[in-house]
Amino acid sequence: IHSFCKKDDHNKENLFNSLNYDVAAKKRKKDLLNNKAKIQYFHQEKWIYVHKGSTKERHGYCTLGEAFNRLDFSSAILDSRRFNYVVRLLELIAKSQLTSLSGIAQKNYMNILEKVVQKVLEDQQNIRLIRELLQTLYTSLCTLVQRVGKSVLVGNINMWVHRMESILHWQQQLNNIQITRPAFKGTTLTDLPLCLQLNIMQRLSDGRDLVSLGQVAPDLQVLSEDRLLWKKLCQYHFTDRQIRKWLILSDKGQLDWKKMYFKLVRCYPRKEQYGDTLQLCRHCHILSWKGTDHPCTANNPETCSTSLSPQDFINLFRF
Asked: Matching InterPro entries, A to Z (predicted)?
């Protein structure tokens, strides 16, 4: 700087022009990367090593964003056994961990969410589940955007406003879905014996699905009000102690299990069940999907794997 100040104004002007050219070149490069934001960040390995301990220094090399980039969630949403697991994980991240993701991980998050919405629009399944996810994410973003200037969100505010507009557009698309009746006119649910219909209803783990099923036909409406059905649903999701705390009697003096279920849902989390989950190897501390090859030195790697719930996955990266 000292030597530069001794030179004439002509050299100063050339230097400033050179600096401006460098800034412009960097801006063009940044804009080019932003235009390619739809391209997902891929890694060859579909697993990640989770460091032992819970200190900030050790977790610096294994963050939630890094795990989200490496574990191939784009392919997981195409698997019906893993779909609900990924959706639940997206919901938990939207509630409290969105600011923990890096910039590239946030792009991947939005890209995966877009693929989830497109899948639901195509197969017309899990509509309510994705509506709830989008509403949770939009509510969280509304809160975070109001705190701009406090290093809450990574990226430009206009980019996040655009993402919020995309969420509103997806919500509108889901609201406009018209369920088409299949052309097949063979045996339907109501054609089965009552015992089989009731047995199928017992496989539903969400009380709202039972209520929706009861609106299909009058016969199903009668079965959906079965007290034993709602009793088993309460006992599946909640403990005896929780149930005893919220006993509700009907007009006939009997326990109203249906009302108790919806009351318990508002007070306690329901039991979660997934067809396939992420696995953590206790021997080598590698996190991956079941069936994914990873460099494990154990004699029987399959016996060392522990299933993780979506909340367990989030807890791995807290310190």
From this structure: F-box-like_dom_sf, FBX25/32
